[in-house]
Amino acid sequence: MASSYMPRLHQLKGISAASRTAYLPHTSRSIPTFSKRFASTEAEPIATITKKKKKSPVRKFIFRTSLAFVLFGGYLYFTDTRASAHRYIAVPLVRWLYPDAEDAHHAGVAALKELYKLGLHPRERSSPDLDGKLGTEVFGYTLSNPLGISGGLDKHAEIPDPLFALGAAVVEVGGTTPLPQDGNPKPRVFRVVSQSGMINRYGLNSKGADHMAKVLKQRVREFAYASGFGYSDAGEERVLNGEAGVPPGSLNEGKLLAVQVAKNKLTPESDIAAVTGDYVYCVDRLAPYADIVVVNVSSPNTPGLRGLQAAGPLTEILKGVVGAAKRIDRKTKPFVMVKVSPDEDSEEQVDGICHAVRESGVDGVIVGNTTNRRPGPVPNGYPLSSKEKQTLTETGGYSGPQLFERTVALVSRYKQKLSDAESPKTIFASGGITNGKQAQKVLDAGASVAMMYTAITYGGTGTLTRVKNELRQERNI
Ligand SMILES: Cc1cc2nc3c(=O)[nH]c(=O)nc-3n(C[C@H](O)[C@H](O)[C@H](O)COP(=O)(O)O)c2cc1C
């Protein structure tokens, strides 16, 4: 439309520069380069005007090459877990953009998922595991390092591979329940920034075991296809039976995938057969895709769940899970671990759990989970703001650095009780681990893997790489 009443340039010849500018529509007048050129080329043919606009090929080349260098440099920087921008820019930015911690969680998961698809995800470019010095033996596998990401960060198994790429040797996905459930009403996740802590009462929101099984099956099929086994049942079977030379769960050499299972909120905890049925339902569907199955009886946000840690019910549930895990149709069966609470820590309670672990033939224990207690402020932290004092009154499980000392103490107690010569159990530690010194301390206390969650939400995608470097410093390697 605009061109139909715009004067053609040749029609304007012979008219003074000022008057020409007046002829031009408003938009053209407001572009200074155009009107300036026009004014200074009284009798110049149109061809000359267009010619002047063209950049020389050399300038074009320099511009394009510099742009390519900048983009490539930016790509290398932002996809490297060592980039401090992840910790000092991305984390505060996400906190600012998403005042609600759950929204930030979803955004972070979605971003990692999309970036991974595009090949733009952060990864360990420094390959700190390659020299094997951080390697450790777990369940007969040589893990590339002793660090893991604990349950709840990837609730629906959407991003196990991006999480492995961040440097974790163990990624725990879930917890998932047999049937989908919404969890508690929002808001249900709260930050306590001055303490680098969190309170959550998600309440095991889950898309259900069938959904997770579908997601994990698809992942194996894609891996089978990429490995030349074909996108088929047969290809999937070959990968799950170890023909690709990688663990069937993680699909990554030196790494293990743990899948966490739990009961539905509506399954009455007094009906132990029904509760066991819930866990077994999940194991039947998910164990084929797991290196480790984790039984969650320690979330504080499902009423009655922690009561299942009493010796009697726990033994029955764990026996059911171990049996189901052994029945799956796969050459190697997944190992079974139980994740316990840091709050049920009396001698009697710990003894009861250890008894159930031994009786049922479970392979190990993850010590522990979030706490119902409200710890005092971290020694060198910032004072609590009045809003944070209010946040601490929210119902839910607390996580963060304050948990650490109790985690170490509990790890050594479980280690002591479960180290009998004929069947020693494997311990993973979870609770307040934030740096390499602490990771080393829980490993010294008897854990085989130091798992993190809250430290990653505050430290960003470079946290595992940083902790590995600090571990090396601790070990002088
Ligand atoms: C937001 C949030 C969600 C969590 N969801 C789960 C979960 O689904 N299952 C579980 O066993 N633990 C869950 N946890 C507990 C963590 O896995 C971990 O055991 C706990 O936070 C202590 O470790 P940390 O201090 O390193 O965070 C969750 C923790 C947080 C902060």
UniProtKB/TrEMBL annotation:
The chain crosses the membrane at residues 61-78. PROSITE patterns: DHODEHASE_1 (PS00911). It holds the Pfam family DHO_dh. Its EC number is 1.3.5.2. The keyword Nucleus does not apply. It catalyses: (S)-dihydroorotate + a quinone = orotate + a quinol. GO terms for cellular component: mitochondrial inner membrane. SUPFAM superfamilies: FMN-linked oxidoreductases. It is found in: Membrane. GO terms for molecular function: dihydroorotate dehydrogenase (quinone) activity. The keyword Oxidoreductase applies. Keywords: Flavoprotein, FMN, Membrane, Oxidoreductase, Transmembrane, Transmembrane helix. GO terms for biological process: 'de novo' pyrimidine nucleobase biosynthetic process; 'de novo' UMP biosynthetic process. InterPro entries: Aldolase_TIM (IPR013785), DHO_dehydrogenase (IPR050074), Dihydroorotate_DH_2 (IPR005719), Dihydroorotate_DH_cat (IPR005720), Dihydroorotate_DH_CS (IPR001295). Residues 366-387 are annotated as: Disordered. Pathway: Pyrimidine metabolism; UMP biosynthesis via de novo pathway; orotate from (S)-dihydroorotate (quinone route): step 1/1. Its cofactor is FMN. Its main location: membrane. Residues 134-473 form the Dihydroorotate dehydrogenase catalytic domain. Belongs to the dihydroorotate dehydrogenase family. Type 2 subfamily. This is Dihydroorotate dehydrogenase (quinone), mitochondrial. It comes from Talaromyces pinophilus (Penicillium pinophilum).
